[in-house]
Amino acid sequence: LSGLDPAQPYFQDTPIEVRLDKSDAEFVDIIHTDSAPTIPYLGKYSTPLTAIGHLDFYPNGGKQMPGCGKNPVSQIVDLDGIWEGTRDFVACNHLRSYKYYSDSIIYPDGFLGYSCASYDVFETERCFPCPPEGCPNMGHFADKFKGKIKDDFLKLYLNTGEAKDFPLWRYKVTMILSGKHKVKGYVNIALYGSGGNTRQHQIIKGTLQPDNTYTSFIDAEVNVGSVRKVKFLWNNNWINPTFPKLGAATITVQSGENG
């Protein structure tokens, strides 16, 4: 049984006979997409961050979904029509749950949820990569993880795209810079692999110090597969008459899915 952002009024903090909970089926998975107050201090539209199923997924932290804060006019005049756009304007975060679910049918390898104490911890290196038993897939294929659940409640975190197609695949990039002088600017990289190529993703912005190690996460819009090439680009933001040179001594790419 899949709960798609189970909504709050007369629901949250009620007895289990009233609300959805893990005793309602052999396997209950939940997608939380709108646990922030709709009107601050006057209640919420959905359940809080409390875990209520066997697997509880919190995409983007479970509160504010990417793409839901865009211009109201552009949101209402939606590619899928004014009715769909108007619904998104009124309850965009809430409705993301079913859109993620429908995308999960098309991408059975997508929406990997990483077991973590919180979204803040997820953004560090402590919940990466997936453990030996793997990570469950949010959505239609969550039940593939049914026999692997060890904890009473499993809270899982992931990021999604701003618009369809929503799934992203997580990689950790560790880079040692080479050069003679530090400069200010940014570094972008793109991954090329057997499954496809990514756009450029920013790894560092600020002071670029040769011999320093920099680590960042990439939530890629494609499952790269086996990485075959990494494109490294840097820019120092303004014209520098000394024409500084900067390179990458090493770039290590680690897949979240299999380590």
TrEMBL record:
Major localisation: other
Functional pathway: Glycerolipid metabolism; triacylglycerol degradation; Glycolipid metabolism
EC code: 3.1.1.26
Entry keyword Transcription regulation: no
Boundaries of every PLAT domain copy: 169-259
Alphabetical UniProt keywords: Cell projection, Cytoplasmic vesicle, Disulfide bond, Hydrolase, Lipid degradation, Lipid metabolism, Secreted
Top-level taxon: Eukaryota
Lipid bilayer topology: Peripheral membrane protein
Gene Ontology MF: a single term: galactolipase activity
GO biological process, one term: lipid catabolic process
InterPro entries recorded: AB_hydrolase_fold (IPR029058), Lipase (IPR013818), PLAT/LH2_dom (IPR001024), PLAT/LH2_dom_sf (IPR036392), TAG_lipase (IPR000734)
Catalytic activity: a 1,2-diacyl-3-O-(beta-D-galactosyl)-sn-glycerol + 2 H2O = 3-beta-D-galactosyl-sn-glycerol + 2 a fatty acid + 2 H(+); 1,2-dioctanoyl-3-O-beta-D-galactosyl-sn-glycerol + H2O = octanoyl-3-(beta-D-galactosyl)-sn-glycerol + octanoate + H(+); 1,2-didodecanoyl-3-O-[alpha-D-galactosyl-(1->6)-beta-D-galactosyl]-sn-glycerol + H2O = dodecanoyl-3-O-[alpha-D-galactosyl-(1->6)-beta-D-galactosyl]-sn-glycerol + dodecanoate + H(+); 1-beta-D-galactosyl-2,3-didodecanoyl-sn-glycerol + H2O = 1-beta-D-galactosyl-dodecanoyl-sn-glycerol + dodecanoate + H(+)
Compartment(s): Cell projection, Neuron projection; Secreted; Zymogen granule membrane
GO CC annotation: extracellular space; neuron projection; zymogen granule membrane
Family listed: Belongs to the AB hydrolase superfamily. Lipase family.
Protein name: Pancreatic lipase-related protein 2
Native organism: Scopus umbretta
